[in-house]
Each structure stands twice: as structure tokens, then as C-alpha cells.
Amino acid sequence: MRPIHVIGGGLAGCEAAWQIASRGVPAVLHEMRPMRTTAAHKTDALAELVCSNSFRSDDVATNAVGLLHEEMRRLGSLVMRAGDANQVPAGGALAVDRDGFSAAVTAALDQHRLVDIRREEIAGLPPQEWDSVIVATGPLTSPALAEAIRVATGEASLAFFDAIAPIVHRDSIDMSVAWFQSRYDKAGPGGSGADYINCPMTRVQYDAFIDALMAGDKVAFHDWEVATPYFDGCLPIEVMAERGRETLRHGPMKPFGLTNPHAPQQKAYAVVQLRQDNRLGTLYNMVGFQTKLKHAEQVRIFRTIPGLEQAEFARLGGLHRNTFLNSPALLDETLRLKAAPRLRFAGQITGCEGYVESAAIGLIAGRFAAAERLNEKLALPPPTTAHGALLAHITGGHVVTIDAGPRSFQPMNVNFGLFPLLSRMPARGPDGERLRGPAKTIAKKRALTARALADLAQWISGDHAAAAE
User: Fold this and answer.
1) What architecture is the 4-157+325-405 domain classified under in CATH?
2) Architecture of domain 163-320
3) How do residues 13-46 score in pLDDT, each as one tens digit?
4) Closest CA relative to residue 347, chosen from 69, 7, 26, 40
5) Which helix (H) or strand (E) covers residue 456, if one does?
6) Distance (Å, rounded) from C-alpha 259 to C-alpha 164?
7) Which pTM value belongs to this model?
8) Rounded CA gap, 395 and 332, in Å?
9) Alpha-carbon distance 416 to 36, whole Å?
10) How far is CA 102 from CA 29, 108, 121, 297, in A?
11) For residue 272, what is the enclosing H or E element?
12) Tens digit of pLDDT for each residue in 43-79?
């Protein structure tokens, strides 16, 4: 049987190759590292996490990304299997030991008899004899391939900047100032409810910090980068600060749900949180502190944070340019390039955002490609599921009218706003009381997730039935 070629060894490419091979179809996974490196990667391992080590909320019942986690588990996801096996405490989130996670994914693919891993750069469009290809090169697509894609699609890819948060050595944090606590003491997978290190700030300290951020020396843009927008879900901290002095204390530095045991009567004006980054608990990353500050400035400014005065950094923040397609115009409903149907796209290059979303689209692309190779029919995942809602966003897009006119397609995390409305909204709780306010919102989310998992089960059954025919 002819193999399906997958270009890119990130989360989407690895998941796609796994799904293809799991269906008895040979997969060739092409990864350019270490032959060609990128500005963000540090190793040559597959599925390297270059930004946060968090897969975000693991709340299946009331959070869209938690629902996506569960759907992927039920669909045999390699990424979720490796993530669950390498989790570290992170409150209500699923965070992983990044090295252990990457090693687990690499080993699983390396050991699969139907997966052939080739370390080489595909510098341009794949050879014509490759009749089925999944391009999962992510936001760091090599320049030669990106240019070939631009020529093939007839339009320029959209692009945005993505920033990386610093990582701090745990033993360099002053715990006589900082303390362990999850916001509202919420425990998550593998967690205890005290999974974040919290560094408090007074108003005077916060104001001085904001001033330093805005005045700090930052990475200069190239001429061709000036017009590139940021993705709002991963803004550099200094860009957030420029949007208003109070922005950060209502964002990543919000003090709510936290009580300082060193001064329980004194409410912090702002709080910097650090989340465990490896299984040993020796490294912690600064939550929400993506930055384009120069390295020396990061050390100087971040050491003004109470508890981090002597901080030693295992990695400082950075900045890289991401690239994604105008997918609603260029891709069909099964992620094939309309201008060249032998090419499918998966992962962040399609316009989804986030580790889990990227892997989920890789999962769907792999299933589509395998079914096509096996001459089977695979229905689209129901739009009521997290996978279906995300796929519909990518291939259908959302045009929002704003004052300046139609808004172009932009990357999106999975969220309940992408799901079809419920046919009937829950009005009363189990006790018969009429639902109002937050209770109504929670009930709505529970109803959406229950519907999603029921519809996913039917879709999986249909997939199995089609394969048996």
C-alpha cells in the first residue's frame, strides 16, 4: 500500500501519523530538525513544546478545551496518551513534563512498524508522485515550503507573532515571600489545589513594574515584520501593558482567589504566578509572561518581582513569527487544498491556536487521509463536538463586521462560542430551582458537553461500521 506522507514532526504531524498508522496505512513522517533548526526549537525531538507546557483546562464538564481533551482520548490520541502519562501538578489544568512528553511521543512513533521517520527538509512542494500528503509544518514552516505554498494557493499567508514565556529554577525563588496556591484552591489532574507559586505585588510595586515593562528595550522588527499582527491569546506581556495600566492585573497578574499566608490580612494588588514545568518540579514557567523584551532587560525587570529578586532563568522569553493559511478560502471541508487536493493541511498552519487544538486537527486530518487511502467513507465529525466545531471554524471561518469593514480569518482556540446552540436551554437545576446567573451558564456548558460526547460516540460507531463494510 502506498504511504501517506506527513510533513512536520510537531504535535499535529505526530498525531496525524499515529492516526494513519493505527488504521493500517503506512505513514512517512518528515521532520527537518536537526538538519534545519528554527528560532524556537531547542531539541531535535518530535512533538517538542516550544512555548508553555500546559494543555490548559482538563475540566471535561464545563470547559471547551477540557472537552476536546476527552474527545481526543476517546479517539485514541497519542498526544493525549503521552500528556496524561507525563502530567505535572497545575491546578485545574493538564500540564506536562515537556521532555518526558516529547520522549513518549517520539518513542511511540519510532517503534510503530508502519511509521517511517525521515529527518529531512521538504524544501518546496512535495514531489508529484506523493499522492497523499499532510502538511503539518506549523507556525514555523521553513521559508522554502512557505513560499511554495503561497505560490500554490495564489495568496499570501497570514502571519502573526507568538512569544515565549521565561522558565525559572525553583530553588532560586524566595519562598519566604512567595507561596504555593492554586486560584480558589482548585485542584486538577495530578494536583493538590496548591500547584502555582504566587509572587505578590503592592500597588507601588505594580506601577513600577508596568513603567519598567513599557520602557524596557525590546526586540526590533524587520521591515517585513512591522505589519504582522499578534494573536490575542498569546500577547507579549509588554503589549498587554501598553493597552492600559490595569490590563495585566485583570489578566495574567490578577490577584483574585489567592490569600498570602505570609500576610493574610494584606490583599495583594497584583500576583505573578509560576507553574511547574517539569516532572521533577525543579523548573517553573512564568504564566502569561510571553515577552519580546531583550534578554538582559528580562533579567533586570523580572527580578524586581517580589520573590524573584535572585531568580535564575533556565530559559528566557523570546519571539517568533507564525504563519497560517486563509483556510476558509483555501481548504475544503476535509482540509484538502482546493487548488491541489493531494495536499491536506493540519495543525496551527490551518488557523487553529493551541497545542491541543493543533493536535486535534492533526488527528482529524490523519483520519480523513487514511479513510481516503482505504476507499472508505468518513463522515465529518458532528459540529456539536469540539472536533467538529473547530473544523467548522477552520473550513468555514467567521466573518465579523466591525467599523473598519469585514474582519479577516484569524486563529482561534476551541471555545463554546464555536458550538451550535442547544435546541433547548436548561431552565431548572436538579433541585427544581430556576437557573439564574452563573448557575445557568454552568448548566448550559454541561449540556453542551453532554451533547458533544453523545454525538461523538455515534460518530465513532459510524466510523467503525464504515470500516467493517
Assistant:
1) 3-Layer(bba) Sandwich (3.50)
2) Beta Barrel (2.40)
3) 999 999 999 999 999 999 987 676 665 566 778 9
4) 7
5) helix 437-468
6) 28
7) 0.77
8) 6
9) 38
10) 15, 10, 20, 31
11) strand 270-276
12) 778 999 987 899 999 999 999 999 999 999 999 999 9
